[in-house]
Amino acid sequence: AQTVTQSQPEMSVQEAETVTLSCTYDTSESDYYLFWYKQPPSRQMILVIRQEAYKQQNATENRFSVNFQKAAKSFSLKISDSQLGDAAMYFCAYRTGHNNAGNMLTFGGGTRLMVKP
Amino acid sequence: GAGVSQSPRYKVTKRGQDVALRCDPISGHVSLYWYRQALGQGPEFLTYFNYEAQQDKSGLPNDRFSAERPEGSISTLTIQRTEQRDSAMYRCASSHTRQGLNEKLFFGSGTQLSVL
After folding, report:
1. Which of A104, A105, A110 is facing B41, going by the closest CB pair?
2. Residue B56 with chain A: CB contacts under 8 Å
3. Residues in contact with A71: Cβ distance below 8 Å, sequence separation at least 6, in sequence order
4. Mind listing the pLDDT tens digit for each residue in B32-91?
5. Mean pLDDT, to the nearest integer, of A24-37?
6. Residue of A6, A33, A45 to mutate, testing the B interface (most B Cβ within 10 Å of its Cβ)
7. Which of A21, B3, B51, B91 could form a disulfide with B110 if both were Cys (CB 3.0 to 4.6 A apart)?
8. Which residues of B touch A61 (CB under 8 A)?
């Protein structure tokens, strides 16, 4: 079974600065997908960014980018120019690439990001 | 509908009572997923459906938990004889197809269950 670990329960960043959230995972599969989700105080689940394991290029979405290290099974999220609205819980998630496995996600325990004005 | 709708938003029940949580996915979405999220933790997979067929229920904690999606649209998660440890946010998600390279999962706002 796959596991996802987020070793930082809480992180803090100054507004306009850059912060990196860590995520490691354990899998024996070679084909899979990785995600970062944001959960603000409203408790919605918002997809931030997605990475396909077969792609070497790191995904980027505006101020959000990932550092995907497949050999190390590491998938960190970098938030640049942090804004007050970035304050939330962030969850790293894994999905198998097997065609018959559906869209089930395995989530990490989350990192609470605080943004200081 | 415009998004995944779950009801009720909040449910408070007494230990031993049965509860039914409802999920109305985005119209036309084939797959529907149930997750449970305890306070301060990440969501945990419970079960999922393609159309009306339950594909995987390996995440259901025990036989007090069951789910159905009889017409391939609305789904109900039922918890019988609730216990305090069942208290959590129960979240539903749907996706347009079973799985695709760019398939996106749409989450509902969840039902917060409190068992007293």
Report:
1. A110
2. 102, 104
3. none
4. 999 999 988 999 999 999 999 999 999 999 999 999 999 999 999 999 999 999 999 999
5. 93
6. A45
7. B91
8. none
